[in-house]
Amino acid sequence: MIQFNIPLVTGKEMHNIAILLNKMKFCGDAEFTKLCNNWIKEKTGTNAALLTSSCTHALEMAALLINIQPGDEIIMPSYTFVSTANAFVLRGAKIIFVDIRPDTLNIDENLIENAISSRTKAIVPVHYAGVSCEMDTILKIAKKYNLFVIEDAAQGVMAKYKNNSLGAIGDIGCFSFHETKNYQSGEGGAILINNPSFSERAEIIREKGTDRSKFLRGQVDKYSWVDIGSSYLPSDLTAAFLFAQLEVADAVNTARIDLWDQYYVGLSDLASQGKIEIPFIPVGCKHNAHMFYIKLKDLTERHRLISFLKSNQIQTVFHYIPLHSSQAGKKYGIFNGEDVYTTRESERLLRLPLYYELTKDQVCIVIEKVCEFFNV
């Protein structure tokens, strides 16, 4: 069986965890948490980076930092994971969904301005598959209407837009280190604070609303409750596991891109014949090979291909039932304009196996079987 995903393990994770076992120090913001924070800060060029227990929690922190109030409106694509919306709905916001581009499956930047109202507080671009949204246009719109930009870069670690790291472009960025991501700690995430005015409060919110971070740095002689917050920091065990992967992130990224390129070349003939569509990478975007997907004719053809590949011991998946069509999406948001592409593209997309331990021979088998399905 060629599995769809095998979580990355480098072999050094247990070594790092053993260090903590010897020191008997496991809580958050210890040695490995700081190493991860510094790695993210230096790699992305963000003003500050803080590990969180998930990308969901990073998004929730972002909603708190920009002071979301009941009735505020947040613009985002419907083709995304539920956490993108939930983080803001929890604060009482209304979600305004707009359609996606059919080429990248990212939010259509040309539809954002029409969705803005007097209640709009932020734009949340989601960098699907580690391919950047059109950030120059989005930032220009945000500046014009005095809106915050919160990047959902859950899939965007190591990816770039015009030489700027995803997650380090808007006011705040959010990473995921879930086991399905390129670098993983089972569960985990990070918040990137690009707007310096949020830096101090981010530490407080993450530490249950206390100024404990200042206390640990010796800036205050005791810490106390100073703001709202929650326990958003992971244990140092989680960070120790993650840091083993961040240390070799460049090598992992290169290996994944090689596999992605192999899929792209191997399936290009099918694409040129119009039988499938393969990913599009806009000029100026540097992706991270988070996934390789193909798009089929319709839902029926996708179902048939999934069954065919499964019968040949190849596991594939699809994802993202558009949020606006879900029970909660209808309750907490509205779709602005016409759904031309969101639902259509979600029903056509199929993700092929892609992970660090996947071999080139296995990729050849997947390509061969996809071609066989189309009798090529």
Describe the protein's architecture and organization.
An eight-stranded mixed β-sheet has the order 1-9-8-5-4-2-3-12, sandwiched between helices. The protein has a three-stranded antiparallel β-sheet with strand order 7-6-10, with no helix packed on it. The chain has a two-stranded antiparallel sheet with strand order 11-13. 38% of the residues lie in helices and 14% in strands. Helix 4 links the parallel strand 2 (73-77) and strand 3 (94-98). The protein folds into two domains: 13-246, Aspartate Aminotransferase, domain 2 (3-Layer(aba) Sandwich); 249-373, Aspartate Aminotransferase, domain 1 (Alpha-Beta Complex), CATH 3.90.1150. The protein is built from 14 helices and 13 strands. The mean pLDDT is 97. The longest helix is centred in the C-terminal third of the chain and has 18 residues, at 249-266. The two termini are 23 Å apart. Helix 1 (13-23) packs antiparallel against helix 8 (236-246), helix 3 packs parallel to helix 4 and helix 3 packs across helix 6 (199-206). With 376 residues, it is α/β, with parallel strands linked by helices.
| Percent strand | 5-15%
Strand order of the largest sheet: 1-9-8-5-4-2-3-12
Shape: globular
User: What is the tally of beta strands?
Assistant: 13
Mean pLDDT level: 97
Enumerate the spans where pLDDT stays under 50 for 5 or more consecutive residues. Answer: none
